[in-house]
Structures are given as structure tokens and as C-alpha cells.
Write the C-alpha cells for this entry.
Amino acid sequence: MSISSDKKSGLITVKYSDANRAYPPLIIDAFLRDASAYLVQNNLNIIDKKLKYFSKEMQNADGFELRQSLSSMISKILQEKVMMKSKEYYQCDVLTVANPAYIKDKSKPKRGLILVVSFITSIILGIFLVFFLEFIKGTKEEESNE
């Protein structure tokens, strides 16, 4: 699994590759759901603490204007809480849905490269074998001439 980010655009890219092409979309989706659930849980805890604090301050407040401003702040916090629970992925949007890779998208192993390297290696080994056999034949002829 690899996670990279672009600092200019703020785009985060999550990649996962596996031999089974149906498995990576499930892993990426589970990762996004877990990360989103973690963010939501942390922010809900913060919002609950803010709500408790503002509710306590509102009970202790004496002036009408102070109560009204605290009430509007509590309203904004509750609105934020509702928005947070309504999104599937919190604070992120999925640009491309993870789909199983098609066979034409296969990237490993690179068969063309393997074929070219093995062809060139076989030519070099063939030339080496010819020179080696000629060398052995030449030494046998020298021994038989002596």
C-alpha cells in the first residue's frame, strides 16, 4: 500500500496492488471508511466537549446578548455535527472509485522486457559458446599435431 500527497492541490492518492485483482478495491474502500470513521470519532469528541462547555457557560450567563451569542455558537456546532454525520467520507471526496483492474492494465511482470533481455542474453551466450568450442577444438588439434 502506498499513500502519497500533492502539497499544491492537497490531493491524497492511495494505491494498493495485489495478485488478486478483486482484492485491492476492497482494501482501499475499507481503508477510506476506517480513516473517515477515525476522523469523525475524534471530531465528535471535540464537538461534544465544546457543547458541554458552551451549555455550562450559557447556564451561568447573565446577559441576554451573551446568551444569544452562545446560543448561536451552539447552533453552529450542532449544524457542524449534523453535516459530519451526513457524509459517507468525512472531510474528503472520492475522485475515482476503486475498481478491479482489467487484464490489459497488467503491469507486472513486463513480459516484453523479459523477452528482449532473454533474447539478447541467449545471443551473447551462443557467441561465447561458439568461441569456447573453437578454442577447445584448436587445443585438441594442437595436441594431436605434436
